[in-house]
Design a protein that fits this description.
mainly alpha
Length: 53
């Protein structure tokens, strides 16, 4: 017995974002993540004495 793959009933499932013209998912979460990443780089720069306050 072999399993047969079924096509999704929703035509949007598996569609590429570039082809649908949709926006990037989770813009708020992405922004917060980039803000926290920048903070981490600032803390690392202070720790390694690249930035002195």
């Amino acid at each position: 017995m072999t399993a047969q793959a079924k096509k999704p009933t929703n035509p949007k499932v598996g569609a590429e974002v570039a082809q649908t013209g949709a926006k990037a998912p989770f813009p708020f979460r992405t922004g917060i993540s980039l803000f926290l990443l920048a903070g981490n780089f600032l803390i690392a720069a202070i720790y390694f004495h690249l930035v002195n306050f």
